[in-house]
């Protein structure tokens, strides 16, 4: 596996583990600041992976 793929999996797992374990995310039914930060990291790594594969990242 490439290091970009490893980084993507690490970022995804870290975000998912946080969402399962964070009391604030569960209590408020909304992501806390840490969850938002971890999701931003995951999205950035995912975007980098898409670029490394030569694909365009869809914009919203």
Please describe the topology of this protein.
Layout: H1 3-21, H2 23-28, H3 33-52
Radius of gyration: 13 Å
Task: Describe the sheet with the most strands.
Answer: none
Helix/sheet category: mainly alpha
| Estimated share of beta-strand residues | under 5%
**What helical percentage do the residues reach?**
over 70%
Treating each run of at least 4 consecutive H or I residues as one helix, how many helices?
3
How many domains? The number is 1
Q: End-to-end distance, in Å?
A: 29 Å
Shape: elongated
Number of DSSP-assigned strands: 0
Unreliable stretches: none
Task: Tell me briefly what this model is.
The chain has helices spanning 3-21, 23-28, 33-52. The protein is mainly α and 60 residues long. It is elongated, with a radius of gyration of 13 Å.
Describe the structure.
The protein has 60 residues and is mainly α. 75% of the residues lie in helices and 0% in strands. It is elongated, with a radius of gyration of 13 Å. The mean pLDDT is 86.
Characteristic terms for this protein:
60 residues, mainly alpha, 0% strand, elongated
